[in-house]
Amino acid sequence: CGAIVGIDSVVINQGDVDSFDSTEGAYSSSTRRNHGNVCSDGPISIQKNGHVYGDALPGRGYTVNLPSQVTGSTRPRLGPVRWTAVDPTDVSQNNDNHLIPSANWTGTALVAGSTEEVVLPAGTYYLPDGFQVTGGAAVLVTGPTKFVVGGSSSVAGRGIVNTTLTPVNLRIEVFGDSISFAGSLDF
Question: How much is the pTM?
């Protein structure tokens, strides 16, 4: 399917979904590739200058509202997304949450605001109420990191930054309602 999978729907609002080859150096618009695939069991909605550089595959009987903003296929999927639901049971007990700075940890959510930089070492983090990143804040991951996220998250500011520049070193598994990436951040 791709890196972004929505069970009920996918909404891309003022954002671009694309890909790049990290062995060729840092990401830039000139190194962008057309493998930023998105799929859903429901509709895919592209709003306010959003683009998918790759395939955007909605669920059977659904469509992509702006197919001209997609470089690949927009054909509906024939079957449901085959995706194993995220089970947070183990990670809720075995995680690296103690590495989150206390000023940025509510006990259930990772929060960052203003121009803060929250630096996290490699690890597995359990966020039952997700992320709340606002203003010009950033969460910086410095090694292989997995977030298991519940609730409804909102990531804005400078977002979640994978300082390793190796995509496989950042994984976000969502068992909550939604995760929204907003503003002008790169992810």
Answer: 0.81
